[in-house]
UniProtKB/TrEMBL annotation:
Topological relation to the membrane, as annotated: Multi-pass membrane protein
The name this protein goes by in its record: Branched-chain amino acid ABC transporter permease
TM ranges: 6-26, 33-52, 64-85, 97-116, 141-162, 198-221, 233-259, 279-296
Keywords, sorted A to Z: Cell membrane, Membrane, Transmembrane, Transmembrane helix
Domain of life assignment: Bacteria
Organism (species): Ollibium composti
Keyword Flavoprotein: no
Pfam families noted in UniProt: BPD_transp_2
Membrane found in the keyword field: yes
Amino acid sequence: MDLIGYGAFFLTTALIFAIISLGLNLQWGLTGLFNVGVAGFVAIGAYTSALMTTPDDPTRLGGFGLPILIGWAGAMAVSGIAAAITGFATLRLRSDYLAITTFGVSVVVQLVALNAQKLTGGAFGVGFIPRPFAGLAETPLLFNLSNLAIVAVVTLLAYLALEHLSRSPWGRVLKALREDERAAISLGKSARFYRVQAFAVGGALMGLAGAVQAHFTGFIAPDNYAPMLTFQVWVMLIVGGSGSNLGAVVGSVLVWAIWAGSGALTATLFPPEQQARAASLQIVAIGVMLCVILLFRPNGLFGNLTYRRRFGLKARKPS
């Protein structure tokens, strides 16, 4: 029973990362926007939902005690607006310049969360965030399975929505802008308009994931949204295959399995006084896995599938 409960907890965390990866895949895989500020938009969603749904707290603003679903909707709205504003101001930049700018936005968000104590609780974070099925907390197995079911449904809905969007005329315009911007503009498509839209929708999904994670853990703090979070999500997308929504989900589960497994291994092999240093081996494990996968699958695990879909090619039948 303990193993099943841990498996449910593991999959819940992995699927939350999958929602973030799906948002990044829309921005980078479908549109070619190099966003290195993922952690910032996740943080915006987490804090928005937390402030909307927590009970009243005299030490900070917010604490409206609203239902969880309204908090999630508010997280998507605020994160999407923040992403749209960021996109409108920065999407004229390309590649490395856009990456530097979005990274700066992420750092600003983390610093605001750390220092705006009257709004975010500062370094102490925000606690008492309502959790779905909180009444089942005394039964860990049932509680974890219930949360897994909710997160799985949210992930499935996000996946199906993005699959539909990628095949829609809107999605085809994004692909055209990524492949040949001049040709798309010559057909009367506004590159900036569509890119801002893609950046906003991707940011909204990241905010939703942050809100779901906040209510799953019940507590958030600025340290949760360090640049390491952005690194993890990028590795998940690259391993799964940029441009593939299925790859974003599978890559998230696989990379999180390596991350959690290496953490458990170092905790077993090293004494407590050395575990802080040994934690860096988790990054080494992820780096080695990334190198191995890219050696054999340069486009990621589902990169070839994405390529065939992109150009309308069918897989060859074995002769």
